[in-house]
Amino acid sequence: MLTGLHAIVFSPAPDEVHAFFRDTLGLDWVDAGGGWPIYAMPPAELAVHPSSGERHHALYLMCDDIGQALDELRAKGVEIVGEVRDERWGLIAGIRLPDGGELPIYQPRHPSPGRSPAPPS
Question: What pLDDT does 42 receive?
Answer without folding.
Answer: 86
